Each structure stands twice: as structure tokens, then as C-alpha cells.
Amino acid sequence: MSQSASIPRPYTTAILASSLDGCLAHADAPGQRIASAYDFQHLEQQVAQVDAVLFGATTLRLGGTAMRLQSPHLIAEREHQGRSPQPLQIVCSARGELDLNLPFFRQPIPRALLTTEKGASRWQGATAFDYCWCAGGEEIDWPQAFAHLQASGVQTLAVLGGGQLFASLLQIAAIDELWLTLCPLLLGSAAPSLYPKESPFAGRLKLLNVLPVGNEVYLHYRLSYD
Ligand SMILES: NC(=O)c1ccc[n+]([C@@H]2O[C@H](COP(=O)([O-])OP(=O)(O)OC[C@H]3O[C@@H](n4cnc5c(N)ncnc54)[C@H](OP(=O)(O)O)[C@@H]3O)[C@@H](O)[C@H]2O)c1
């Protein structure tokens, strides 16, 4: 499968759930999942396939935890393949302002922070992260960020949102596949958006599979940018 443009980077799959009006969460409960228990299993299966998971700082601040593998079967399968039991959990934060009291910092997972020089200065000498990757001065420099990931052996990456992170990766042609769970909800304009950008997405999405389960629909797309 061809990857986008010229930036060397991991093969990247985004896995998200949205309402029918393109929202990621309830406006008044922004940290809560909107999808079903089946979707949680689907997400866990996708996460079990990858070397690392990437998510935005707001998602972490509101949810408090990373999507850790819990299924003994999926963990055993990874170990059988000679992989680490848990994928590396990478939080992207330009500012680097994260509360050490979040349960995330007590989860038994490998952790990385992808940040800027400004953000990294907050974490000098800290041991909360296994890796602290600095990419860019005040904004994330993505080619530099991908170079850090690749140097650490991350060849496959799952992006779990939120919308700001997802949209910024779409805009630099850095998502190869999308799994989108459509949930039977209409959440309104105050809710966080799947694609909070003014400019439209310039790439194309080819539908690979559609699976209705209960009242949800699982859509699987391949993205291209030529
Ligand atoms: N339904 C789903 O599948 C799903 C999945 C994930 C999240 N969510 C929901 O989505 C909402 C959060 O989404 P969101 O769009 O508001 O935020 P987000 O993408 O989770 O996080 C935004 C923050 O992440 C950092 N960030 C993201 N992209 C960046 C970039 N290109 N460069 C530098 N830093 C970047 C910045 O952190 P700093 O401000 O620290 O610099 C930014 O403020 C929550 O309600 C969450 O529960 C839903």
C-alpha cells in the first residue's frame, strides 16, 4: 500500500467513533465514550496490531487513561509474535502541560511524550515518560516527530483522536487507513468535532468494508493523497 508524499513515517491507521453529525463526544460529557461495548472490542483489536498508539493531550486530559490492552488473548498473541505485551502509548502535546495525577501515569504501559522544545522543558529530568521526544520549537514538526518514532522502532501506528490531532495528520497526508464507527447519535454543534478544520480534506477515501453491528456501522477506508 502506498504511503503519502515524501515524509518517511510509520504506517498509520486512525480509529474513531463519531455521531451521525460528525461529533466525537457529548458536549456535556466530553471525556466519555459514545460507542458500544462491541466498539471497545473492535478498538482493542486494532490497538493490538500496532507498535504504538498516538492521541491528543485533550483526549488524555478528559479521559484520564490510555487505551491499554486488557484481553489476555490479545496480549498473549503479541508475546507469541515476540512483541511487547502493550504498544507504546504516545501523547501529543505542544505545550507539554499534563497533570501527573492522571491515572494514565499509573497504568502499566510504556509511555512517550511527543512535544516541542517549549513542552519538553517542563519534563527535563522527569521519569514519568519512557521517551520524551522534542520535535519543533513551539509547534510540532511532523517530519522530525516521525523520525523519532521510526528511530524507536515504531513501524505501525494507531491514531485514536481526538479531532484536532486526527485533522492535523490528515492535512499532512499522514493517515493511511481509517476505521470510523458511526454511532446513532446527533450531538449538536457544541460537541467536539471529528474534523475541526476550516479547509476541506483534500485526499480521497476508498471504502474497503462496511459492517453494521446493532445500531452502529463500522466503516473501513483506505486514504490516498495523489
Ligand atoms: N469518539 C472517539 O473516537 C474519540 C476519540 C478520541 C477523543 N475523543 C474525544 O474528542 C475530544 C478531544 O478532541 P480534541 O479535538 O478537542 O483534542 P485532541 O486532538 O485530543 O487534543 C488536542 C491537543 O493535543 C495536542 N495536539 C493535537 N494535535 C496537535 C498538533 N498537530 N500539534 C501540536 N499539538 C497537537 C495539543 O495539546 P496541547 O494543548 O497540550 O499543546 C492540542 O491542544 C474529547 O471529547 C475526547 O473524549 C473521542
Descriptive notes:
By secondary structure, the chain is α/β, with parallel strands linked by helices. The chain has a single domain (11-19, 36-224), classed as Dihydrofolate Reductase, subunit A (3-Layer(aba) Sandwich). 23% of the residues lie in helices and 26% in strands. The chain is built from six helices and nine strands; from the N terminus they run E-H-E-H-H-E-E-H-E-H-E-H-E-E-E. It has helices spanning 37-48, 57-63, 72-80, 117-120, 142-151, 163-171, and strands at residues 11-19, 52-56, 88-92, 111-115, 131-134, 156-159, 177-183, 204-213, 216-224. A nine-stranded mixed sheet has the order 5-4-3-2-6-1-7-9-8, sandwiched between helices. Helix 4 links the parallel strand 4 (111-115) and strand 5. The longest helix has 12 residues, at 37-48. NADP nicotinamide-adenine-dinucleotide phosphate (NAP) binds next to strand 1, helix 2 and helix 6. NADP nicotinamide-adenine-dinucleotide phosphate binds at residues 16-17, 24-25, 30-31, 34, 56-59, 62-63, 92-95, 97, 139-140, 160-165, 168, 192, 196.
Write the layout of secondary structure elements.
Elements: E1 11-19, H1 37-48, E2 52-56, H2 57-63, H3 72-80, E3 88-92, E4 111-115, H4 117-120, E5 131-134, H5 142-151, E6 156-159, H6 163-171, E7 177-183, E8 204-213, E9 216-224
Parallel strand pairs: 1-6, 1-7, 2-3, 2-6, 3-4, 4-5
Antiparallel strand pairs: 7-9, 8-9
The site of NADP nicotinamide-adenine-dinucleotide phosphate (NAP) has 29 residues, from strand 1, helix 2 and helix 6.
